[in-house]
Amino acid sequence: MPRVFIKTYGCQMNVRDSEQVAQMFEERGYTMTPQETEADVILINTCSVRDQAEQKALGKMGNMGKYREKTPHLVYGFMGCMAQSRGPELLKNVPHTDLVVGTQKYHKVVDHVDALLRPRLEHRMDDLRQTIVDVEEEEASQNTIRDHVLTEKQATAFVSIMQGCNMKCTFCIVPYTRGGERGRPIQEVVDEVKSLVDRGVKEVTLLGQIVNLYGRHEFPKVDNKSPFVQLLEAVHAIEGLERIRFTSPHPIGYKADLVEAFTYLPKLASHIHFPMQSGSDRILKAMHRPYKAAKFLEICESMKAARPDLGITTDIIVGFPGETEEDYIATRDLVKQIEFDNAFVFRYSKRKNTPAAEMDESIQLPEKVKEERNQDLLKVVNEISARKNATFVGETMRVLCEGPSKTNAERMSGRASNNKIVIFDGNAQRHTGEMVDIHIRETTGFSLYGDLIMADEPAFV
């Protein structure tokens, strides 16, 4: 059986897309391999949000070109956002590339690989350098990411509920690589989650570029509830499902109905990843983010009132074109005021064909300034995170065990409802995929460490 290696960069959407591709390969008789050196097909699922992600993908593919020396039939391919934005250019930049597949054509990857690989295995030498580029738009592509490859006792799964984005923030390439918003029917999503629960999954994360604006163009409001809240209610009703997460929401999608949902849907995890991007109204306007800092703060306060134990994480960009020291301080101050549990802080990176990349060169900030602000803000975020984590010491947390810790296979790792990572001693066979109570005894960095409370022991309060 031909063996396929897939390397994934970027967001949870990319992880989910790669999973779908892997499932389709297995259905067609291919074998997935974690070893690139033994593969007959090498695919990289790419991200274009930042230049660093693109350079990693290009560098990785470039380094793997040497494998064709011992495996002449080897097929190399790019998938995803960079494939969508660069298209045929990748064939020139990385000459051994055979396949470029865009974000709306994941379901065609296996067909394209078959078309490239089969002639090579049959030694039809005239077909050895055939190439395929498929980056055209395709109607209803949002409905093609629906199958799952699950490992034994897998506790969590990603579920794609929509594709695309219409917001067109000036720094972001996603609307150009993922296309416009398209939502899947509620019942299709519900059926997918039911299937996952039947296979042992206890927690799902609903995925979309602007997930809380799901269905706004396709589906009507019902009882003044948005399609997204309708979907949350329908998924919440699935018996056996214990937790629901979603990412990433947009501030304009946090209407009263979604805030209220956190008061009556207990399966909604006590965590939101809520991109702020900047705390400066001037920069938010330049970013084409249709809210002000005060509104973002108001939403956070409303969410905390609806769910007092809520953890909030965020994305922030520093060094956006024209960002002054005063603008940066406004961001820093808002981070301190909101007290995020964690934040992903990024230096602004030019993205080809986005409005921010075309802004006057005189307002593009030096890399040194971006890095200084990045490091300063990370220090603030880390201090807040450490202080907040310390408040959980001595408490008992309900944790969904996901399996052995990535940093120490002798210990178990899981997440609490508020998204805190909890490490504890346990048994992989017994505890993986189960909800367990952990008494927190210490914290270091971003993780909490604790002791498993057995069922016959009294819980701490």
Polypeptide structure, described:
Helix content is 33%, strand content 21%. It contains 14 helices and 19 strands. The strands form five sheets. It has a six-stranded parallel β-sheet with strand order 2-1-3-4-5-6, with helices on both faces. A five-stranded mixed beta barrel has the order 15-16-17-19-18.
Keywords for this structure?
globular, 33% helix, 6-stranded parallel β-sheet, Transcription Regulator spoIIAA, OB fold (Dihydrolipoamide Acetyltransferase, E2P), 14 helices, 5-stranded mixed beta barrel, 461 residues, Rossmann fold, disordered C terminus, alpha/beta
Number of DSSP strands? 19
Quickly count the helices.
14
What is the share of helical residues? 25-40%
Tell me what portion of residues adopts beta-strand conformation.
Answer: 15-25%
What is the terminal separation in angstroms?
Answer: 55 Å
How are the elements arranged and paired?
Blueprint (H helix, E strand, L loop, with lengths): L2 E6 L3 H16 L3 E2 L8 E6 L4 H14 L10 E6 H6 L2 H5 L5 E3 L7 H13 L10 E3 L21 E5 L1 E2 L10 H5 L3 E2 L2 H13 L4 E5 L19 H10 L6 E5 L8 H9 L6 E3 L7 H6 L6 H14 L4 E8 L6 H14 L3 E6 L19 H24 L5 E9 L7 E5 L4 E4 L3 H4 L3 E10 L2 E7 L8
Parallel strand pairs: 1-2, 1-3, 3-4, 4-5, 5-6, 7-10, 10-11, 12-13, 13-14, 17-19
Antiparallel strand pairs: 8-9, 15-16, 15-18, 16-17, 18-19
Helix pairs in contact: 7-8, 9-11, 12-13
Quick summary:
The protein is α/β, with parallel strands linked by helices and 461 residues long. The protein has helices spanning 12-27, 51-64, 81-86, 89-93, 109-121, 174-178, 186-198, 227-236, 256-264, 281-286, 293-306, 325-338, 367-390, 428-431, and strands at residues 3-8, 31-32, 41-46, 75-80, 99-101, 132-134, 156-160, 162-163, 182-183, 203-207, 243-247, 271-273, 311-318, 342-347, 396-404, 412-416, 421-424, 435-444, 447-453.
